[in-house]
Specification:
single chain; mainly alpha; 2 helices; 26% helix
Length: 98
């Protein structure tokens, strides 16, 4: 799972648990098209996880400090969002929690 996906899932978990803790029993408070909803008669295991951490793992490709060379050139170019069209451009979602 990538950083954005983990952060989106954590946001979802926070909403679900906030609703559960406040006594809301309705599953979907956001209206979704029928093709994206889980049918009510499906028996799924209850969600018990409360939080998701997003971690940036060093793989050997990234070398700390190398990104500073391109930082000046990157600052001059305008920001272009390359994410999925179903998600808003939220730079905070690209930041790992740890």
């Amino acid at each position: 799972m990538d950083i954005v996906g983990a952060n989106l899932y954590n946001r979802y978990l926070q909403k679900v648990w906030k609703d559960r803790d406040s006594g809301k029993t309705e599953e979907a408070t956001v209206s979704l098209p029928a093709c994206r909803r889980i049918p009510k008669n499906v028996g799924l295991t209850e969600q018990t996880v409360r939080e998701m951490e997003s971690l940036l793992v060093g793989t050997g490709v990234y070398k700390q400090g190398d990104h500073t060379k391109g930082a000046m050139a990157a600052a001059a170019t305008p920001h272009v969002y390359h994410g999925h069209r179903d998600f808003l451009d939220e730079p905070a979602l690209t930041k790992p929690s740890k």
